User: Which sequence fits this backbone?
């Protein structure tokens, strides 16, 4: 029970925004108020709309950005699956991947987040300008690796490796991938799957992949 001397306000944005909204709904008298900023209050297990939004947003550049994303994603996947050992290792080296035996789908999940993150966090125009420039076709995969690298978005492909990273239970206050994976595996869902009309991410990232991801990560 709250009183005038111990009123509490709970605050969250995005996924935590959903948590505070749900908390206030289930326990209306436990906190005085809940501030849910951009709270994603409708939990969706098979979240294809996220990928569809990527398609719709990248069309705004009018220069073929959505097609460039699709094409270079397919090229990366083709090298990973069908290239010889040297080609595959060179590909992974470009993205600073430590474990050259990284699961194919885990790596493609990383690739998809380059584009999704760019759109979600306000870099759509920048990325599309790069992809639509005439010199992009000279070295497309290297340019994508540069976008993901420390001089741009500072993404770490190794953090997507389930066997080498997500299953690691060593406590590290600077790492949260395992905690986040546990949360969406057991509470949220929101499995980011390709939309079936205009997929912008690898088709291997389907519902079965995410169920397997959770099982591999936590033996669920």
Assistant:
């Amino acid at each position: 029970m709250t009183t005038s001397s111990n009123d509490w306000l709970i605050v969250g944005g995005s996924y935590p925004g959903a948590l505070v909204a749900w908390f206030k709904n289930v326990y209306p008298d436990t906190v005085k108020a809940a501030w849910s900023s951009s709270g994603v209050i409708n939990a969706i297990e098979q979240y294809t709309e996220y990928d569809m939004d990527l398609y719709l947003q990248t069309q705004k550049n009018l220069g073929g950005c959505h097609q460039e994303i699709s094409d270079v994603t397919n090229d990366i996947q083709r090298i990973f699956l069908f290239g010889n050992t040297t080609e595959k290792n060179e590909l992974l080296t470009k993205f600073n991947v430590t474990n050259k035996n990284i699961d194919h789908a885990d790596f493609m999940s990383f690739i998809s987040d380059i584009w999704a993150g760019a759109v979600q966090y306000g870099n759509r125009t920048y990325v599309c300008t790069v992809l639509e420039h005439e010199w992009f076709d000279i070295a497309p995969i290297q340019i994508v690796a540069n976008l993901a690298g420390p001089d741009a978005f500072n993404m770490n492909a190794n953090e997507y490796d389930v066997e080498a990273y997500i299953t690691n239970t060593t406590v590290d206050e600077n790492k949260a991938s395992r905690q986040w994976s546990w949360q969406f595996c057991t509470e949220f869902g929101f499995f980011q799957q390709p939309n079936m009309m205009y997929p912008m991410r690898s088709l291997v990232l389907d519902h079965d992949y995410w169920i397997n991801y959770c099982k591999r990560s936590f033996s669920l």
